[in-house]
Design goal:
Chain lengths: 105, 265
């Protein structure tokens, strides 16, 4: 989170909406620990990362859709072991749970 | 001031703080910010849940842990109360201050080690008793520079050093090394490394025994410092030292992954 502050400040000062994505759980092998964070603004600008690059693209798409639809905060799961998992997996074979939320607080 | 602004302020000031958010259950997305000795900011949508989770969040912060906790909608924690009750999952993220590396000796290796430590997120303090060497001009990457003898350094920082922190002694000078090692051993610092050739190391161990240190205490001292990766330049040596610090903390063997089996993370 710390590494996102400068960009988040800039976006907020410019009145840009953004979604914060945080790793809240991992199963098996995961490249980033809980707390790893990324943020996506309404123009598709991205800072931070939540994996070794495996799922960031899918997070951006999901975040933009959330902003468009004014969606509530939610947990999304990436990885092959979950029935409801997104189509995108982690190359390391683990499962990663992300909490996505528009930064309104 | 918004919750985010206050979080950003505390993170930049290195104030220990933790963020708790409901990730599942009623009021998903409700967020609170907790720091020791400060009133709770924000909340989790139910007063009792906020109170109970804030108490747990402080505990997690003290341990420097990030975790997910489960509660009933009114903060119930006992298993009987949670039967047939929807579960609220709360993600607690602790922001502990960065680990601290104290480097003794303003020598050639110091600047490379300080740079590598900054890369890993350490707060770096460089200490040397010689004013002409311990300057911000020579070590612009250091967070603090102390022109002082080891006793004074440990008087200032000793109480704060813990398992995530490191003391690296690069002075090569017994009149500095010995008190620095003695001072470091009196702290709870997780890593103590001392630079020197095998010959210097052997002589140093004799001196330390002379001043009354026992072999079980000296077992904490990594000397000669660093992993055996054939490092020669200051930069390579810095990597060798940082590799050893990481391997000691994680309890790993520091072999090539291609030569081992089992889980990587």
């Amino acid at each position: 989170m710390r590494e996102l502050l400068d960009d988040l400040d800039r976006w907020r000062a410019a009145g840009k909406r953004c979604v914060l994505g945080r790793v809240v759980g991992i199963e098996g092998s995961g490249p980033r620990d809980p707390g790893a964070a990324m943020a996506v603004n309404e123009e598709g600008e991205v800072v931070g990362s939540v994996s070794g690059g495996c799922v960031e693209g899918a997070v951006v798409a999901e975040a933009l859709e959330m902003l468009r639809a004014n969606s509530d905060a939610k947990v999304v799961t990436f990885g092959y072991s979950d029935d409801e998992a997104f189509a995108v997996g982690l190359t390391c074979g683990g499962t990663i749970h992300l909490f996505l939320q528009e930064l309104t607080w | 001031m918004s919750l985010y602004d206050e979080l950003a302020r505390r993170l930049r000031a290195h104030t220990p703080t933790a963020l708790a958010v409901v990730i599942d259950g009623p009021h998903a997305g409700a967020t609170m910010l907790v720091s020791p000795g400060e009133p709770v900011l924000g909340g989790l949508g139910n007063d009792e849940l906020t109170r109970v989770a804030a108490r747990d969040t402080l505990g997690e912060l003290e341990a420097g842990r990030t975790s997910t906790r489960h509660y009933g909608p009114q903060g119930q924690t006992t298993p009987e109360d949670l039967v047939d009750s929807p579960t609220v999952r709360v993600f607690i993220e602790s922001f502990a201050p960065p680990p601290h590396m104290v480097i003794f000796g303003a020598v050639d290796f110091t600047s490379a080690l300080a740079r590598a430590a900054k890369l890993l997120g350490y707060r770096v303090t460089v200490c040397d008793a010689r004013k002409v060497f311990a300057t911000a001009r020579r070590f612009p990457m250091a967070d603090d520079i102390m022109v002082a003898w080891p006793d004074e350094v440990f008087l200032t920082h000793g109480n704060h050093l813990g398992p995530r922190d490191a003391v690296c002694i690069l002075t090569h000078d017994p009149k500095f090394d010995v008190p620095a090692i003695q001072g470091a051993l009196r702290t709870k610092v997780g890593y103590i490394g001392v630079m020197g050739s095998r010959k210097t190391h052997a002589k140093r161990m004799e001196r330390l025994a002379e001043v009354g240190l026992h072999s079980d205490e000296l077992g904490r001292v990594m000397s000669p410092i660093g992993l055996d990766i054939g490092a020669r330049t200051p930069e390579e040596t810095a990597i060798s030292i940082c590799g050893e610090i990481i391997a000691r903390r994680t309890g790993r063997t520091a072999q090539s992954l291609s030569a081992t089996t089992g889980a990587i993370h």
